[in-house]
Design brief:
By secondary structure, the protein is of the alpha/beta class. The protein has a single domain, classed as Rossmann fold. Helix 5 packs across helix 6. The longest helix is centred in the N-terminal third of the chain and has 13 residues.
Length: 152
């Protein structure tokens, strides 16, 4: 079974960023080939709607058959609010909490992001997973794109 990898907008945007392009592009190429399944949410798609064309074309290059699109369902919305209520992340960063919750509820294999302040951050990862376990969800693997490439 192919791994299901949830990406936020930072990964797609990273394809056009000098610091992050190498690993973002390599990961996107894996999605294009169908080596792994690209999981995005409608939230990710909305965030990318305002991005420059050169960023959006990276997402558009992935065949529909290799993409799974998730909705922000009530269950994920409630879980995101629990992260906020328990102080894992502030209400100002609600969208980041929603990304984590959507991926958790969908039980993806890993969420990848370049957001080291609010997502790929050991303190926050422990907080998200503590909330998840207390609410009956599995822990969520959260990594930077370079960590999910096979030869890194």
């Amino acid at each position: 079974m192919k791994a299901r990898i949830y990406v936020d907008a930072s990964v797609v945007g990273g394809c056009e960023d000098d610091e992050f392009c190498e690993h973002s592009v390599r990961l996107m190429e894996r999605f294009v080939r169908g080596d792994v399944i690209l999981v995005v949410s409608t939230l990710t798609v909305q965030e990318l709607a305002a991005a420059p064309n050169e960023v959006r074309r990276h997402l558009a290059s992935v065949p529909e058959a290799h993409i799974e699109t998730l909705q922000l369902v009530a269950e994920a919305r409630e879980l995101a609010e629990a992260y906020i209520a328990e102080g894992v992340i502030s209400a100002k960063m609600r969208a980041d909490a929603q990304h984590i919750a959507i991926a958790t509820v969908a039980r993806v294999d890993v969420l990848v992001s370049w957001n080291f302040k609010h997502i790929v951050n050991l303190y926050r990862i422990h907080g998200y997973n503590s909330v998840n376990l207390r609410r009956g969800y599995p822990t969520l693997e959260i990594r930077a794109p370079r960590e999910v490439l096979p030869d890194e």
